[in-house]
């Protein structure tokens, strides 16, 4: 699926799948701008994600996230979304209109190993919910909105970026790992 220079590449997936880190590397490899919607949300609200969840509740967090996602304009950027972006049909329709949506798929056990700061990370989850609960709820939504899916299991960041480029039909600059 060839992507054009003016289309955004929108990354979706569970917390810990690498949207932000892979997004920065992909933007560098493609010579594109990078937007992290979690950082935009924090800048717009003046609060950390976890503060919004704790002080205002999940519904308020999701409303603010939706408003932030709706500000993302097309223009050939790599966009890393928050894991809960898929809860908003309106926001996902907006993002799909301006680009290709790529689901970074990672198995639950790998997510659980990566996400150690669940209480402070700013994850939209209710009292008593676990990552496994979120996984069961969100996976069908990621699959619904994805134009492409890239499996990230057992891959290095560089391998994931190369897999993304291949899936998008784009040539990426080769990255060198610093030792």
TrEMBL record:
Cofactor(s) needed? Mg(2+)
Q: In which pathway does it act?
A: Metabolic intermediate biosynthesis; chorismate biosynthesis; chorismate from D-erythrose 4-phosphate and phosphoenolpyruvate: step 5/7
The record's cofactor note says: Binds 1 Mg(2+) ion per subunit.
In Pfam terms, one family for this protein is SKI
Cellular component per GO? cytosol
Q: Which reaction does it catalyse?
A: shikimate + ATP = 3-phosphoshikimate + ADP + H(+)
Residues at which ATP binds: 16-21, 121, 155
Q: What positions does the entry give for substrate binding? A: 38, 83, 138
Subunit info? Monomer.
Q: Which UniProt keywords apply?
A: Amino-acid biosynthesis, Aromatic amino acid biosynthesis, ATP-binding, Cytoplasm, Kinase, Magnesium, Metal-binding, Nucleotide-binding, Transferase
| SUPFAM superfamilies membership | P-loop containing nucleoside triphosphate hydrolases (SSF52540)
Family annotation (InterPro entries): P-loop_NTPase, Shikimate/glucono_kinase, Shikimate_kinase/TSH1
Q: Which residues bind Mg(2+)?
A: 20
Species whose genome carries this gene: Luoshenia tenuis
Q: What GO molecular functions are on record for this protein?
A: ATP binding; magnesium ion binding; shikimate kinase activity
Q: What is its EC number?
A: 2.7.1.71
Lineage, uppermost ranks? Bacteria, Bacillati, Bacillota, Clostridia, Christensenellales
Q: Which family does it belong to?
A: Belongs to the shikimate kinase family.
Protein name, UniProt field: Shikimate kinase
Q: Where in the cell is it found?
A: Cytoplasm
Write down the top EC class of this protein: transferase
Any one GO biological process: chorismate biosynthetic process
Q: What job does this protein perform?
A: Catalyzes the specific phosphorylation of the 3-hydroxyl group of shikimic acid using ATP as a cosubstrate.
């Amino acid at each position: 699926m060839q992507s054009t220079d003016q289309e955004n590449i929108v990354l979706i997936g569970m917390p810990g799948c690498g949207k932000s880190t892979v997004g920065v590397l992909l933007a560098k490899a493609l010579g594109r701008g990078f937007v992290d919607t979690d950082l935009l949300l924090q800048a717009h609200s003046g609060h950390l994600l976890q503060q919004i969840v704790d002080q205002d509740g999940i519904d308020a967090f999701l409303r603010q996230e939706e408003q932030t996602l709706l500000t993302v304009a097309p223009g050939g950027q790599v966009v890393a979304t928050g894991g809960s972006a898929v809860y908003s049909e309106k926001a996902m329709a907006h993002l799909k209109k301006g680009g290709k949506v790529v689901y970074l798929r990672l198995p639950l056990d790998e997510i659980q190993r990566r996400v150690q700061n669940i209480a402070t990370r700013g994850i939209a989850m209710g009292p008593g919910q676990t990552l496994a609960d979120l996984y069961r709820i969100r996976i069908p939504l990621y699959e619904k909105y994805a134009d492409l899916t890239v499996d990230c299991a057992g891959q290095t960041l560089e391998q994931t970026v190369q897999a993304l480029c291949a899936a998008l039909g784009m040539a990426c600059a080769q990255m060198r790992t610093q030792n």
